[in-house]
Amino acid sequence: MKNQFLSSLKRLGSYISPYKWTFFLAIFLTLVAIVLNAMLPFLSGLPTTEIAKNIAEGTGVNFPYVFRLVVIILIVGLVYSASQYLASFFITNVVQHAMRDLRQDISQKINRLPVSYFDTHQYGDVLSRVTNDVDAISNAMQQSFISIINAFLGIAMAIIAMLTINATMTLIVLVIVPLSLVISRTIVSISQKYFREQQKSLGDLNGFVQENLTGFSILKLFGREQETLKEFTAINHRLGNNGFKAAAISGLMMPLVNLVAYSVYIVIAIVGAFNIIAGVLTVGNLQAFIQYIWQVSQPVGQITQLSAVLQSASAATKRVFEILDEPEEVRNTENIPLPETIAGDVSFKNVSFSYTPDKPLIKDLNIEVKSGQTVAIVGPTGAGKTTLINLLMRFYDVDRGSIQIDGIDTKAMDRSDVRSVFGMVLQDAWLYNASILENIRFGKLDATNYEVVDAAKTANVDHFIRTMPDGYDMQINEEGSNISLGQKQLITIARAIISDPKILILDEATSSVDTRLESLIQKAMDKVMEGRTSFVIAHRLSTIRNADLILVMNQGQIIEQGTHDSLLERKGFYEQLYNSQFSEEAE
């Protein structure tokens, strides 16, 4: 655990390194503030000593001397305050820039992670690592960095100053430090696991909320509010329980450390009084010494107060670096460039694949698709249809065999080059919070307005857009709920059209639209697919009658292939699928 903490601290230091001069300036100003703070008790004790001396000698108070000391104390106090403020200002600047860089690295890392990572992790938990966990680190560094430096150096300066006054009394005071450290270490060892669980529970809560807010209308439709509330309550209770235990246990530090400090105060007051009577110590020095005790106990108290923040940050740091240490998509060693002209021939040669080693899905799959052909992929749920597309797009890599585009193994090409060949329309239409114009332009960022409108016309969505408020400038809200599912699907088709792909993939593209919109989409897709290699994952078998090749999949294997008519004549699995669907539609 200690090695892990030091390793995380070292990695955080690498984010501060680019701003080291500002950081060193903050440290220098902190040192100035610490030295001045250590001088103040000694200086403030001098007027007391002088006044006590004047009274004891029966002479008048030496006001000019006392006044000069007061002015010096005020100047030192002002410089101390200014140094402390500037140190805090500069360290805040360093921390915020470092956290900006950390978030940037996480964002870049997310783009390099394989799709499999997001298939096994809740989006809300990933989001929590980028936001809540980084904020926890930021708050800890900003609040505690200067405070910890102040504490340790302040304690050292105070001890040195106390030694110059009275060594015996200083040894008594030094009891505070080891006892406080023992108390702190004991409590931290107990509470740390609850802080880790607290951060994990917070990630689970974010994941749950994100997932359920996304499907809020479905929850309402099926009356799942109470069940969802129970699940939320369970996670929320776990978060609250871990948070309470973490705070309650770490909260014991301050009272226990203060108990030690107050005990030392009492002892020093008694010993100091005897030393004054014995003439070993002046009243002003005792006053200064008691202030130095405060300069030792107060920083120790600060550290214990920051314990909860530091432990939360420690748990958050572990979660942040976990995502940064995740294995990335394997980079190619060859990186064969794309040919200048892509015909669109696709072949699967002896392809085998499984999501988990003990559950093989696709075994020795062979497909030959010629340029310009339309290939429909059909089969029951779980047959491997979408997996086939994931392999084609290199969202996952094959275990054995090869997938080739124009005779080039896609594994030998850069993933971005492979994906640049494809245009894709998914069953779940994804739009982002921007205008309709920008959502279509997402397929080709340098597209002109004319090209956007032309793509919308080809996708048969231009008329819909012009009837909406603000037309192409209408803003899609964050949930995409201010337009219909069919309109969303047509907009995503327009986005695929504007990218002018060499190979087109339609994953259940018409499954969520009505018959009229299906007809519009089908006409648009007929135009788009003309001259392009197209893969269509079909839900409605009536939409693929004109496909050049139909692949019938079941349990990861192609069990039948041919045209619509030839497959019906064969009276096999495809005919059963087609007739069952036809009878369902007739009903």
Known CATH architecture of the domain at 2-324: Up-down Bundle
Helix/strand-derived class? alpha/beta
Mean pLDDT: 79
Strand portion, in percent? 5-15%
In CATH, the topology of the domain at 2-324 is named: ABC transporter transmembrane region fold
DSSP helical segment count: 21
Spans with pLDDT under 50 lasting ≥5 residues? none
Shape: elongated
What is the percent of helical residues? 55-70%
> Taking strands numbered 1, 2, ... along the chain, how are they ordered across the largest sheet?
6-7-8-3-9-10
Instruction: Please name the fourth-level CATH homologous superfamily of the domain at 2-324.
Output: ABC transporter type 1, transmembrane domain
For the record, give the distance between the C-alpha atoms at the N and C termini, rounded to a whole number.
65 Å
Radius of gyration (Å): 36 Å
